[in-house]
Model the fold of this input.
Amino acid sequence: MKEIKIRIESLSVSYGTKPAIKNISLNIARNQVTALIGPSGCGKTTFLKTINRLNDFNDKIRISGKVYIDDLDIYSKNVNITELRKKTGMIFQKSNPFPKSIFDNVAYGPRVNGVTNREELYDIVKSCLMKAALWEEVENNLYDSALKLSGGQQQRVCIARALAVNPEILLMDEPASALDPLSTARIEELIMELKKNYTIVIVTHNMQQAARVSDMTAYLYMGELIEFDKTRKIFTNPSKKQTEDYITGRYG
Amino acid sequence: MSNHIIKQFDEELNKLRSRLIKMGLMIQEQIDNSMKALIHNNQKLALTIISKDDKVDEIDVKIEKQCLKIFALHQPVAMDLRFVISAISINEKMEMISDIASNISKNILSINLALPYQNNTHFRIIAEKLVSLISKSVDSFTFQDTELAYEVFNNYLELKKLIKENYNIIIELMKQNPAYIESFTRLIIINRNIHFASNFAVGICEEVVFMVEAKIVKHRLFDFSKQDS
Amino acid sequence: MLWQNLFSEKNSLKNFEVIELINKFKIFLFVFLFLIILITFGGLLNLIFNNSIALIAYILIVSIIIVIIKKKKTNLFHVITENTFIILTSLSSLVVISFVIYILTYIFIIGSQHITWEFLTSNPTEGLTSGGIFPAIVGTAFLVIIMSIAGIPVGTITAVYITEYAKENSLFSKIVRFSVNSLAGVPPIVFGLFGLGFFIGIVGKQIDNREIISKYNNINTMFLQSDSPFYKDNQANPREVISFFKSLKNDYSFETIEALEGLVLKGEYKNYNLEFYIEYLKERERPKWGQPALIWAALTMALFTLPLVIISVEEAIKAIPPELKEASYSLGATKLQTIIKVVLPGAVNGILTGGILAVSRGAGEVAPILFTGVAMYLPDLPDSLSSQFMELGYHIYVLATQSINVELTKPIQYATTFVLLVLTFTLNFTAIFIRSKTRNKFNRES
Done:
């Protein structure tokens, strides 16, 4: 039984009066890939942003319930938010590298956290780009703008960038939805590699991707957790009819 | 059960289902006729059974192609996945049953018409039971009825006993009537084939249980001891 | 026709129409240019406006031109009815454009004749009727530089505050936005009066008062020095006193010194004591900061152009995709770090644009500096923040209204206008250029 990295208890999130997440309880295990599937607008992205507290920037957000990372309540008063955000790296749906060089993109995290030594930064950038399976493609043009890369490469720059601050958790919001099949396959392969050392939560619309890549799958519908189980079980014999209807394409 | 959003997927699955049901009816008929031919020693009937086997083979190929198509184009999951995988297996087993019916018929043709075995009532009972078994297993698929499937498991055991007894009876008869040794050998072969057919019927029911309940009951419900005849 | 053969589907008729429209536009562009030249330099405008027949003839001619260019076998009536509206509106825009072109061309042609290197680098002479405009150029430059140093940082920080820190729709940000918009609509002369009343009348005066207080502590001691005539307590001879007063001439006006010397010559100076002289001098103290000065004019201008800067920067900040800020936060950066490393670099083009637009307005507006620092003629270049200065826009006004010889100053006027226009245009086009270059900074992805 894998140990639990993120524990979510009775989490409810609403934007003003509109509820986005209704009373979800979920345990995310360490060094595993947990996929969140469900139709659009059912709260998956909100859920991710609750874990790294990016929701804090939205004034209208109301949160109740608890989120524990390593048994620490991340919404308690004495939590260092920047530390929390370093621990939980996020990869966004549309790759969003800064309009800076590849090097500066990956080095951004370490730089804002105080690393200034040129050599140290170079080592970090190199190792992260290697972890993101991008080093060989960019090692000779590290100082070119990151925006000149292809979509798949840009996304891998974003992954390297997130890895540079040594997170323990990676939150991925449809990381491959804007990519062609080959780039998608590379990203999926990367995820399988990364899960050895990181806890990964991935939101995806693509059920086959969830099936290929994840160990556990959670099905969310309209902000509610319908079913959460081993991926293998969900895709061969889910317990709830609602889940089955969704994954077999009968939903609607 | 609601429909798939992609209608074509629904259509494909329905086509598959109806083809299998059709095939089930065909093999049911084949077995039915083969048992009739056996009991009444009806060589004409036996010939028609043999010729009809081609049709079954045709539909077998169609079903297999269709399953492949569904896998490739629609990536079924959960219940749909189980259905299509079972369909392949059931298809195979049904084809084997039809094959057996054809085989039994071929053996009937080689039996001497003068063979004194009409007193053997075992064959009559066995024939009835086999027909009922096959029909139940086909029905359990047609109606996705696992109750029927479990009944078949039980009926199988009864039939097995009868077949074993029948074997002994035939051996006795063989000893008493050595002149007809070839024909009696044919009967032994037929006896065995009936046994095989019942095995496949059970196989179909196992697949039905898997399809409906997602339980894999192969090799677990009871011991499948191989009989030496 | 070939087009109809290529597009045989129903909804590609739309494509067909669009292409038609584009072609029509191109045609009008050519007609425009041709007619602009005609109208501007040919007096055609006069003819058309005075004569309705000419107006109809104009429509006919344009229609015929369209038919000829398009080589389409449609009937003329059809073309006319369809295009009358377009033609009439094109006429009005032609009128406007040609006015502008006329004025600009006139100024450019006449003004550029008098531009020489000497003109740009020498001082005006003989009561502004000849010579160059160098001090005006320098003054404008100083004004604009100090204005930018004062205005751009403040504007940028305000814009950053409004967009990043203030809560959406909070009362405070609403007040700030309202103030910015109101400021943008205030007439420039009001800024000038504000500068006069506040910067000069209050701030400058305060500074001066403080300096006077400290200076007069020193003067007290200076008067009581051993070499001061007052030291000898009315025993000094008149010559010593006069030379003492003369030594103060740099700090006081000519008239003051003369009056003091007069007192000595009249023999009356002994009638007054030390306090009297100190008070006398104090009253005649030349204000240094409490008078029109470069710094006050620059600050007034900064205030005047502040809304421009704020709005430009705000726009640029809002154009930054929020995903970039989210990415920065998710890497553990604080709000300040995100602003410095992501927001400001991304808003640089807005800052530049706002700054350049502010500068171009600052170089052109005269009203705010009218009372706050500009002078008609100065022999020297401004050497400190408290000096007055000359300025291009004001110089044009002066040449036009205070000239002693209109014939001589007219060419200088045109030339100065030309210089100012070139300056303003260059600045504006640079701003547009920069804006277009950096507009798609965030969208250059493959």
The first strand of chain C starts at residue 124 and ends at 125. Confidence is low (pLDDT under 50) at residues 1-11 of chain C. Chains C and B do not touch (no CB pair under 8 Å).
